[in-house]
Amino acid sequence: MKNYGPACWLALGAVLLVSACSTIVNQSVPFNDADYGAFSAAGTAIVAGHAFVRSDTGVKRSAAGIQISLVPLTPYTEERAKIMESGKDPAPADSNLTKYIRTTVGDLDGSYKFEGLPAGSYLIFCRIQWERPFANGRRRDGSGNFYALARVRISNGEQKSVVVTNVSQQ
User: Fold this and answer.
1) 79-99, pLDDT tens digit by residue?
2) How far apart are CA 44 and CA 21, in angstroms?
3) DSSP label at 65?
4) What pTM value is reported for the model?
5) Residue 106 CB partners (closer than 8 Å, separation 6+)
6) How far, rounded to the nearest angstrom, does the alpha carbon of residue 108 sit from its chain's CA centroid?
7) Judging by DSSP bridges, how do beta strands 60-62 and 24-25 pair with one another?
8) What does DSSP say about strands 67-72 and 120-131: parallel, antiparallel, or unpaired?
9) What distance in Å separates the CA atoms of residue 166 and residue 58, rounded to the nearest whole number?
């Protein structure tokens, strides 16, 4: 029988802990294609900004290199947003939502931009995760798994700057 070292057991424990903490929540609001009709056409609005999260220890992590998504804000996507804000994962989205999702990747500072949007309300979100092992026996903001979200309403021709984060913006 092979003898596994402490590092192997720590890695296995971390994987099991993360798996155990992930809670998937089913939605009660069904997808309704009629809610998305106004979002099929091209528009002239622009939403740009910066996406980041703050870890439990207060460290800022930007969405550099992370996919940032924009979807029309409807009862279906609002329920998904509330699930994410509660720290849980929504069940896989209805496949019909795919054609309404726009994505980009955050630049080195976590900045993003969506152009050609029709007027309406949108949800902008991303998930920022990291794993950083212990160094020299000291804990250094070891790992994180956070959703960053923002809601925005735009008019034709309007350009808005929106911060997407897990931090309360009251």
Assistant:
1) 999 999 998 999 999 999 999
2) 42
3) T
4) 0.81
5) 51, 62, 63, 64, 65, 66, 68, 112, 126
6) 17
7) unpaired
8) antiparallel
9) 11
